[in-house]
Amino acid sequence: MTNSSENFRVKGGLTARQEQAALCIATGNNYEVAGLACRVTSRTIRSWMTNVPAFKARINELRSELTAATLGRLLDNMSAAATTLVDLCQNGKQEMTRLMAAKSIVDYAVRLREHTELAERVAALEAAQPQARRRTA
């Protein structure tokens, strides 16, 4: 029986190599690159994807975490981006720059409004759902 770190289980029952490969894949690398990084073949990684549900689940978990972190960074800078667009719209030196900034502002405002209205409608439907269930019960 070997006592190597390769067989040591980490988060979610995965080995250290599986965890490393999951991170490589979650960050956009293909199976070959992930395999090289953790010293296994791409065939082994394909096997983990098929036969180790925790491996695929970990990739999805890592992707969700990375997406949330990226979204957080974008949201942190959204106000500055809006300020830049307004500044370009009002003070851009070229007419095309001002036009593109204006189009962007209008487009984003319309999309935001549509999203807000849809979220409100979904919330109203979800709020009405328990009442409908109680009436039929």
Task: Walk me through the structure.
Helix content is 80%, strand content 0%. It has 137 residues and is mainly α. It has 2 domains: 5-68; 77-136. Helix 1 runs antiparallel to helix 2 (31-38), helix 1 packs across helix 4 (53-76) and helix 2 (31-38) crosses helix 3. It is flat, with a radius of gyration of 24 Å. The mean pLDDT is 88.
Q: How many helical stretches?
A: 6
Mean pLDDT: 88
Largest sheet: none
* Class by alpha and beta content: mainly alpha
Helix content: over 70%
Series of H and E elements: HHHHHH
Number of extended strands: 0
Molecular shape: flat
Estimate nothing, just give the exact number of structural domains: 2
Q: Per DSSP, what share of the residues sits in E-state strands of 2 or more residues?
A: under 5%
Global Rg: 24 Å
Distance between the termini: 59 Å
Low-pLDDT segments: none
SSE layout and pairings?
Elements: H1 16-26, H2 31-38, H3 42-51, H4 53-76, H5 78-91, H6 95-136
Brief digest:
Helix 1 (16-26) runs antiparallel to helix 2, helix 2 (31-38) packs across helix 3 and helix 5 (78-91) crosses helix 6 (95-136). The chain contains six helices and no strands. The protein is mainly α.
